[in-house]
Design a protein that fits this description.
The protein is of the alpha/beta class. It contains ten helices and 13 strands. The protein has two domains: 241 residues, Aspartate Aminotransferase, domain 2 (3-Layer(aba) Sandwich), CATH 3.40.640.10; 102 residues, Aspartate Aminotransferase, domain 1 (Alpha-Beta Complex), CATH 3.90.1150. The chain is 35% helix and 15% strand. Strand 6 and strand 7 form a beta hairpin. The structure holds pyridoxal-5'-phosphate. This is Phosphoserine aminotransferase.
Length: 360
């Protein structure tokens, strides 16, 4: 058996070069005479690694100097709750824009902690579009506006950053970070679970504007307080050192590919190839409005549900892994994050053509 093309939505494929490097230095990292997983996070070697990873991410996204970069734990989901804990009072409005399952979950987790308002929702379209900015009902006194720039499950993506005026914009960029240029300055806070475009699950990267950290309530337990994490260089307690190390390797890999501008060209080409084939096939179908289609997650259905099991079995046998759609949507989903090469998408399209011809 050999490695397949992995279309998993997350934990997702990592660049093969990164896995090989991690394998080569798994037992002895640098001059440590031990694995990177086995050394103190407070030693100078690990501190240097941590600082380099942060610098590489800052370079890749041109993160302005007045933003902190944090390496946290708990997955994006923990931060659905921790964000309102830090940035809103219980009686204060927080605006959520619902564009799919992840934004719904983020709003739900915030409910016990702040006065959640749904500023806009595309639920009526079964989350097949992004609600037009002009129709959003924003509260000018809200603590923040929360958006999910890429909805991983239904494959819906914002292709522009919405203007929210003086109200700070927060974005869950778990499944789009590093896939294309991102204007950090338009957001007050960005966060991402690592397991799509950054590294292993469990690690969360957060980019947060300094002035926001002044709002963190002093009576929060330290471990939940972002200002404390920032003050301690994300080492308030033992960080996910293995995740931080792998994230650092991935940042170097993205740089070596030419950075986020090159990544965007690569991802646009993959998305065009796959959507172009689906739309022209007369067989497969993607329900998302063209202007809102994700470059990272491409759900599609077959003409009859009873073909799904056969498609999955045969695609798996052909080395095309994890194409099963999310249980909320059914059908298939191809996640084509940064680490998926164009050849992988071409192999998928070739398989889909052949399958359609045999199962018309
Ligand atoms: C995967 C994902 C999450 C959840 O991440 P966890 O690490 O499982 O908590 C949240 N938001 C988006 C957009 C995601 O893609």
């Amino acid at each position: 058996m050999s490695r397949g093309y992995n279309f998993s939505a997350g934990p997702a494929a990592l660049p093969e070069d990164v896995l090989r490097q991690a394998q080569a230095e798994l037992l002895e990292w640098g001059s440590a005479r031990a694995s990177v997983m086995e050394i103190s996070h407070r030693g100078k070697d690990f501190i240097a690694l941590a600082e380099q990873a942060e610098q590489d991410l800052r370079d890749l996204l041109a993160v302005p100097a007045n933003y902190k970069v944090l390496f946290l734990q708990g997955g994006a989901t923990q931060h659905f709750a921790q964000i309102p804990m830090n940035f809103a009072r219980r009686d204060q409005a927080v605006d959520y824009v619902l564009t799919g399952d992840w934004s719904e979950k983020a709003a739900k987790e915030a409910k016990p902690l702040a006065r959640v308002r749904i500023a806009a929702s595309a639920a009526d379209s079964n989350y097949a579009r992004i609600p037009a900015r002009a129709a959003w009902d924003l509260d000018p006194t809200a603590a923040y506006v929360h958006v999910t720039p890429n909805e991983t499950i239904r494959g819906v993506e914002f292709h522009e950053v919405p203007d929210t005026g003086a109200v700070p914009l927060f974005g869950d960029v778990s499944s789009t970070i590093l896939s294309r240029p991102l204007d950090v300055s338009k957001y007050a806070l960005l966060y991402a679970g690592a397991q799509k475009n950054i590294g292993p699950s469990g690690l969360v990267v957060m980019i947060v504007r300094d002035d926001l950290l002044e709002r963190c309530p002093r009576d929060l337990p330290k471990i939940f307080n972002y200002a404390e994490h920032a003050a301690q260089g994300s080492m308030l307690n033992t960080p996910n050192t293995w995740g931080w190390y792998l994230a650092g390797l991935v940042f170097k890999w993205v740089k070596a590919q030419g950075g986020v501008v090159a990544m965007a060209e690569h991802n646009r080409a993959k998305a065009q190839l796959l959507y172009g084939y689906i739309d022209g096939s007369g067989y497969y179908r993607n329900p998302v409005e063209k202007s809102a289609r994700s470059w990272m997650n491409v759900p599609f259905t077959l003409p009859r549900e009873d073909l799904d099991a056969k498609f999955l079995e045969e695609s798996e046998a052909a080395g095309l892994l994890a194409l099963k759609g999310h249980r909320a949507v059914g059908g298939m989903r191809a996640s084509i994050y940064n680490a998926m090469p164009l050849e992988g998408v071409q192999a998928l399209v070739d398989f889909m053509k052949d399958f359609a011809a045999r199962n018309g």
